[in-house]
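Handoff note, outgoing to incoming analyst
You'll be picking up this chain. Sequence as last confirmed:
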Amino acid sequence: MGRELMIVLDTHVLVWWTLDPVRLSATARHLCDQIPTTGAKVSTISLWEIGIKIQRGHLDLGLSLEAYVQRLRALKGLELVAVDVEHWLTNLNLSWAHRDPADRTIVATAQRHDLPLISKDDAIQAFYSKTVW
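Most recent structure output, in case you need it:
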């Protein structure tokens, strides 16, 4: 892999890394293992996405969303990035027909920070050339 870089995590990667790391690919797991040293960014839209999945009964973290966020905040190297005006403008300017607001915002976050994005999502991989899995 060479020199490791800071990365951006897609929502499912965040959940899997923190709660079920065996679901990650070998490459994703290796990069996530480096987060305490190299760092990672997570768009706060991922917290919204996780909350929606919990409300709809599609995800059970085994703890409250508030407790999960508290654990995330304590992880060395992990930065929760607020979705600000620049992120929304980048989101809206993506030349991508994909309509999912969370996916678009996560890609916009990676693009704005010029960082690789870890995602298993085929649509993201096809659009964002710096996606790794």
